[in-house]
Amino acid sequence: MNKGAKIGVAAVATAMLAVAGYGAYNIAGALTGSDEASAAKPRTVVAEPPTAEQAAAAAKDFLDAWAKGDVMAAGKLTDAPDAATAALTAFQDKVKPSAVHLTAGGPTSFPSPSASAGAKSSAPASPSAASPTAAAPTGVPLSFKASMEFAESGTPWAYDGVLGLVKMSDGKAAVHWTPAVIHPHLGAGETIAVKPVYGTPGTVTDRKGKPLGSFPSLTAAMERFKTQAPQGGSPEDAGSGVLISPDSGSGTPEKLFTIKEPKPVPALKLTLDATLQAAAEAAVAEQSKGGTRPASLVAIEPSTGYILAFAFSPSTGQNRAFSGATAPGSTMKVVTTAALLEAGVTPSTPVACPSTTMVTGRPVANDFPDAHPNNTFADDFTESCNTAFIEKGAAVLKPDTLPKIAKDVFGLGLEWKTGLSNFDTKIPTESNMAGAATEFIGQGKVQTNPLGMASVAATVQSGVFKMPILVPGMEQKPAARQLSNDVLTNLRALMTQTAKSGTAAEPMAGIPGAAAKTGTAEVDGGKPTNSWFTAYRGNLAVAAEVEGGLHGAQSAGPAVAKLLRIGNG
Q1: pLDDT of residue 290
Q2: Residues 98-121: pLDDT tens digits?
Q3: Contact 208, 306 (CB under 8 A)
Q4: Do the beta carbons of residue 22 and residue 166 sit within 8 Å?
Q5: What is the Cα–Cα distance from 233 to 363, expressed in whole angstroms?
Q6: What are the strands of the beta sheet with 99-107, ordered from one edge?
Q7: What average pLDDT does range 225-251 have in this prediction?
Q8: CA distance 29 to 42
Q9: Residues 213, 268: Cα–Cα separation, whole Å
Q10: How many CA atoms lie within 13 A of 33 on its CB side?
Q11: How are beta strands 268-269 and 254-260 bridged, if at all?
Q12: Quick one: angle between helices 333-342 and 450-462, nearest 10?
């Protein structure tokens, strides 16, 4: 049934002449088709209106012909026979009512075009509705009532319409043709047809059936999920209805009448957890300090990839939790560490931590002033030594190592389909090591968001990348490979030690089993401004960022800690 036909003014050989305010339409050929008529003067609209009797008779004749299915005869009773015949034929073919009843009414008034210029309604038309794209009404307005029957419906589709009657040069009245003659909501550039219709979820709930309507960060998401087609809906669940659709393909179709009701759709359960969502909203609100510094957070269930919570502030702005695109600072060292471990570095490998190192002609320092020449790699990770990561990375990795492992193991760089719009992490492949060096510490051209970094922590916890999703059953693209058991064990141990005694110790205090990595992103001329933190505990991974929050343990860390203390029960 999903067919459409444009109901509009067909291309006909017409010319408009100004005749006392009325358009004059030259109709090519005579209405009767006879040789005599062919030579006759073209039939045109004149300025003089028809008499009431002429208008009523012409309206009745037109409606009778249309109701009987004689679209050729009905078309000839208009001032644009070709366009009318084509449109009525398309209506007959694409709407296919089993019976058409049309009853002429009496004098009325044309609806105001401005009254119908707003959003389309899903209810049957009322007498006050008009085509949103129609020009100024023409002719003497007469009302009519339409009733269309369908074999699948016990209730007829009834609506009120308006015909404009004009006087023609042969002295007879005719219906002034516009798409709105067929239905008052139909305009030029639109199609009316019977199409499948699906039920929409009445409510959207969390994974346990709790409502989600009260959370500021979810407002836009809830509207999207309520209006979208049911996930996994099958054709046998569909009903059918008469719809008006824009020919452009954009915009929302207007349902005029439901012929067959679709199967009811149960409440849509998302992967979210209302308890964790409440904590996420509170954590982000606290760290954003009333919206004066933007912040966002994402929580993921590592075993499934299910997104359990996301929040952002200001909640009326961009969903930066999913769509943010900024440098993650040292939280990216989790991915760099995986690459270094695969390259043969171990936690006990001596890796000096100089106070500064040079990258592309400028010095890069650490968050602490002193050099630590006797550090092991484990010390460098827990202290978050930038210089050690840059120098060791330059010594044992290649310029394309980080982008490759990020994509092949952690899924960063794949096209993610979460259920909402999101920005996919970007880690460009640099042509030389000088360009790649800053990427090792989450700077340079690296761009991501809490969704990406929560997924990194989730992949470390579970050992397998699971693409984050909001709707159970959505397709989850796998990553190309997994880390070896030895690499994974060492990486987990390093994050655990960081939560116990490293840079993440303060916010992770009192949270047994936590594993974490802090981050401080340098932006705006090299000033350390953005706070990042990614961590996991049990079957829960969380990442947060706070713009202007300084070091990771100062702002983003407490936000993550709030959810890890609750856990994924």
Answers
A1: 80
A2: 999 999 999 999 876 544 433 343
A3: no
A4: yes
A5: 57
A6: 99-107, 140-149, 157-167, 173-175
A7: 79
A8: 7
A9: 13
A10: 4
A11: unpaired
A12: 40
Tokens of 384: 């978050």
CA distance linking residue 240 with residue 563, whole number of Å: 45
Phi-psi region of 199 (alpha: psi -120 to 50; beta: other; left: phi over 0): beta
In Å, how far are 59, 72, 73 from 32, measured between CA atoms?
A: 19, 11, 10
Residue 463: predicted pLDDT: 98
For residue 519, give both structure tokens.
């981050």
Q: Across the chain, what does the average pLDDT equal?
A: 88
Rounded to whole angstroms, the Cα distance separating 316 from 318 reads: 7
Query: Cα 40 from chain centroid?
Result: 58
* Separation between Cα atoms, residue 369 and residue 385, nearest integer Å: 11
Summarize the confidence of residues 481-488 as an average pLDDT.
98
Q: Is the peptide bond before 211 cis (omega within 30 degrees of 0)?
A: no
> Taking the model in full, what pTM does it have?
0.67
Query: What whole-number distance in Å separates Cα of residue 475 and Cα of residue 217?
Result: 24
User: pLDDT tens, 553-563?
Assistant: 999 999 999 99
Evaluate whether 495 touches 517 at the Cβ level (below 8 Å): yes
Q: Which of 111, 98, 187 is nearest to 148 (CA)?
A: 98
pLDDT attached to residue 49: 95
Three-state SS sequence of 236-286? HHCEEEEEEEECCCCCCCEEEEEEECCCCCCCEECCCCHHHHHHHHHHHHH
- Which residues neighbour 209 within 8 Å (Cβ) at sequence distance 6 or greater? 267, 269
> Alpha-carbon Rg of the chain, whole angstroms?
34
* Cα distance from N-terminal residue to C-terminal residue, the chain: 47
The letter for the amino acid at 568 is N
Return the closest-CA partner of residue 556 out of 313, 336, 367. Answer: 313
Cβ count near 489 (within 10 Å): 13
Band the pLDDT of 537: cuts 50, 70, 90. Answer: very high
Which H, E and C letters describe 129-179, residue by residue?
Answer: CCCCCCCCCCCEEEEEEEEEECCCCCCCEEEEEEEEEEEECCCCEEECCCH
CB under 8 Å to 146, separation ≥6 — which residues? Answer: 100, 101, 102, 157, 158, 159, 160, 161
Give pLDDT tens digits for 378-435.
999 999 999 999 999 999 999 999 999 999 999 999 999 999 999 999 999 999 998 8
Beta-strand relationship, 254-260 and 239-246: antiparallel
Q: Are 418 and 469 in contact (CB under 8 A)?
A: yes
Tokens of 64: 């009778």
